[in-house]
Amino acid sequence: MNPAIFISASVLLGALFALAQWISLRHMGYHVHPSIILEAWGFQFLASGVLCWSLWRLLGPQIQRASIRSWIVYFLPLSIVISVAEVMAFVLLFPGLPMNRSFNTYRERLTFYLYSDLFEDVVIFWCAFFLFRGVGYYQRYRENERAAAQLEIQLANAQISALRMQLNPHFLFNTMNSISSLMRIDIDAADTMLEQLSCLMRITLERGDAQLISLRDEMEFVELYLAMQARRYAGRLEQDLYFDPELYDALVPAMLLQPIIENAFVHGLSKIDSGGTLSVEVRRNGNQMRVCVKNSGRGLSPGAPSLANRHGVGLANIRSRLKLHYGEDSSFSMVEIDPKNVQVSVLLPLQFSPDAFEPAARYGAQ
Amino acid sequence: MIRAVLADDEVLARQKLLQLLREEQDIEIVGECATASETIQLVNLTKPELLFLDIRMPDMDGFDVVGALSAHETVTMPHIIFTTAYDQYAVRAFEIHAIDYLLKPFTFERLRSAVQRVRERIVAPEPDTSARAIELNGAQYTTRIVFKSRGRILFLPVEDIRWIRAEENYVRIYAGGESHLLRETMGHLEGRLDPQTFLRVHRSSIVNLRYVKEVRSEPDGEATVGLISGEKVGMSRSYRSRIQRLLHK
What is the chain A residue with the closest CA to B191? Predict the structure, then answer.
């Protein structure tokens, strides 16, 4: 706190006390010049204010750490010495006080004030002492709390990146295997796939550690991924994609769609040899975003064991990431809408990035 | 014959170019080099029309080569196609008027389209005078756009754009066999494009008149613009007379 504010606040407090006393004196029929009361109270509180402020500046950390023993051997005598000094200075500065008493010597007046005010000053000292100690406790508590929150975030981030790492190599090896097999039959196709894979990796690298990315970026990734899959499933797959343009800038967890779509291929579309359909839809649903991936193929087999077992790490992974990012505000479901079609739906809270995305294109004439 | 020099510090990268360019009958490779200084010497010596240039090389980078070459008054600057694994230099390459920017690994298709651009540029040399005339008129329209799309870098000549559609804060550009989504507004883009070629036909669409086949009235009184590619673009009534006037010019 700024010392000027602190000290003027305590002087103001003194002035209020002075006003109160002046009014009560008037009430009782005494006529005293208000300035003398104001000065006396003002000084007393100024002194207390300066005292408290310097206590805080000079001894703040010691007060916050002080053990009970040092309270007694160090702060108790200190409180008495300071209070006596305060009273001495007060008596020295206001020779006209106390009024209506016949004390004349400094010593007599000092004795009077030591009796009447010393206790008060000691109490103010100890109030300040406990206040500072309390502030110390509070600060430490807040700091611990912040550290705990930070730790939690770090932990969640670490978990999320670990989960992401599980996705990428898995996908990478499958694709490399496809390229390896294409190499022998169709060099151009292998070349194209290699280029597409590089593009995917470039996009992933560019994202870096970003956990939440714009839907448009996720879309780009999915489009590339589907272009690669379309080659592998040439002629036996119909794709239908719809992303609401209003949501292009909405935030989604990175690599949300790819594992779901991959799952649709592995467990559905790859099991049939023609007429497969895959539809991916992202729409707004109130203040939520609804992601829906539907595929034909084989439905979920009856009495299928739990999702995680049957559908690999991919989907379990998405579930835990959703939970980490959004807690209970998101949902994930996988249902067989009819014996041949399976639908995965994800509901997320609709969020937009606070920073505007800058235009990516540059123009030129030549 | 287009005489070309290949500059790349990796022998396999040069070999790939050599092999792919063998298919292009009109390209003659007059030299290969593995360092920037070699490249500068070789270009000064052979004066090629085309230079395939890697960006990271052991001594200096590709841009240093360009700088050194442009300092020589006796050499006409070859057309440059950058080949690199790094995507962060694209804008710089664009600004020095490189023909294209191929991210490794690139496909034969991609190389071929870059080489095609060089051919076009050589046949119809830079429209220097007309560009200057446009500049004098105070309105300089863009001829190329550079952007990233699906992990690639595109130096897209605007004449390749068939039409453009607004999608909220984005525009979708239809060119070649694909579409590209750019974060851009219709108004800004429209201002960048030559109104002689690009016409706003709707609040949310712009068409390239070179690709327009017909304007057709639908039974419900609305009109659509049919493109040569078969795509149909909706049109507002208020734009109708404008396009008909332009088409019948």
Answer: A363
In A186-293, which residue ranges form alpha helices assigned H by DSSP?
187-207, 215-232, 257-267
Report the gap between the CA of A317 and the closest CA in chain B (Å). 25
Mean pLDDT for each 10-residue chunk of chain A (366 residues)?
72 78 76 72 75 75 75 80 80 70 72 77 79 84 85 70 59 81 88 90 79 89 88 83 94 87 84 87 95 86 50 74 84 88 94 75 79
Residue B203 in contact with residue B168, Cβ under 8 Å? no
Which CATH class name applies to A186-349?
Answer: alpha beta
CA dist., res. A133 & res. A129, Å (int): 6
Q: What is the pLDDT of residues A202-212, one digit of tens each?
A: 888 787 777 78
d(CA A330, CA A308): 18
Nearest C-alpha in A relative to B98: A366
Contact A220 B140 (CB under 8 A): no
Report the length, in residues, of chain A: 366
Q: Residue A34: is the preceding peptide bond cis (ω within 30°)?
A: no
Domains and CATH numbers, chain B: 2-123 (3.40.50.2300), 132-247 (2.40.50.1020)
| B130-176 pLDDT per residue, tens | 554 445 445 578 999 999 998 899 999 999 999 999 999 999 999 98
Q: What are phi and psi of A30, to 5 degrees?
A: -90, 145
Residue B226: closest CA among B247, B242, B245: B247
How high is the ipTM of this complex?
0.80
Helix, strand or coil, per DSSP, at residue A341? strand
Residue spans per domain, chain A? 3-148, 186-349
* Spatial distance between the Cα atoms of A294 and A292, rounded to a whole number of angstroms: 6
